[in-house]
Amino acid sequence: MISTPRLARRLLSFLLLAMPFSLSQMSLAKDLYQDTHTVTSEFGETRIEGTPQRIVTLYQGATDSAVALGITPVGVVDSWMERPMYRYLRDELEGVEHVGLETQPNLEQIAWLKPDLIVATRFRHERVRPLLERIAPTVAQRQVFDFRDSLRMLGEATGREQRANQLLDDWNERVADFRIRIADKLGDEWPQKAAVVRFKSDHVRIYSTGFAGSILDEIGFTQPESIEDEGWGMKLSSKENIPVLNADVLFLLLDPNDPAIMDNYRDWSSHPLWQQLDAVQAGRVYEVDPVSWIMGGGILAANLMLDDLYAHYGFENQGIESQGFENQGLQDQGSQDPGPR
């Protein structure tokens, strides 16, 4: 694991050797920065001097949030799919250093980048918290999928609260617009029961919480009764469990580049029990992007997920482009709050 005694000793030795240089940098920082603020997160109260310029993000939602705020981190962790970085973030993160996996970041590499802010998650990084905090001020979220809190926390830590609040206001407007449209279109058939189903090579997962689940819940979708008390969801290994997937609408997460996954999908979807599902009979089975629905974890991915919903229900997309944002929400960086790009 990343918190082994050997790694801890090596990292501590590095930090001690770097101490004189770090102290001189701190003296310089006092001249450059005139304010200090405290951010309260899952790692307690973190004191941050001035506006951080060298930020390392250690989970997907933090990386997404940084880009949305107009920040180019000096270090990011690898993406779960489309490695090393999701396609929707690649242009903004071209040339950025990668510091390992979200579950196993390279602490020495992070230290060499000399960050002045690290953005972590308690869920992933509690065991290495002392080492992270030796490197730089570290703030953390409890979970990896709460994009609102990730955005607010990073906005507060970097002096971009106004930008973060604007992004969330825009999100709330889009959600309100979609809710009005879908209620008008479906009438008494709204709300619909929605199932987010991911096919793996040897099993199927149905999600009830997490990133996609929380957004569907916010919009007004409900869950199938079969998973209401199942925590994150269920793992299904037998096609006899197909009735568990019964819902008004199915959102499928596939990987067309993985033959084993696609074979498993064809096997399940050709089964007579699959054909009896309400969503299948009504023609409401939609393939969606796993990156934006469960992997991205930030405000930009949330907007891409909402784009999918607008498209699948045939609504004119009140998307981020119509709000004046280019690509993933970035237009004129010079007009945003000061900070690294």
UniProtKB/TrEMBL annotation:
GO terms for biological process: iron coordination entity transport. It comes from the Bacteria. GO terms for cellular component: outer membrane-bounded periplasmic space. Its main location: other. Keywords: Ion transport, Iron, Iron transport, Signal, Transport. Residues 54-317 form the Fe/B12 periplasmic-binding domain. Residues 1-29 form the signal peptide. Belongs to the bacterial solute-binding protein 8 family. This is Iron ABC transporter substrate-binding protein. It comes from Halomonas cupida. The lineage of its organism: Bacteria, Pseudomonadati, Pseudomonadota, Gammaproteobacteria, Oceanospirillales.
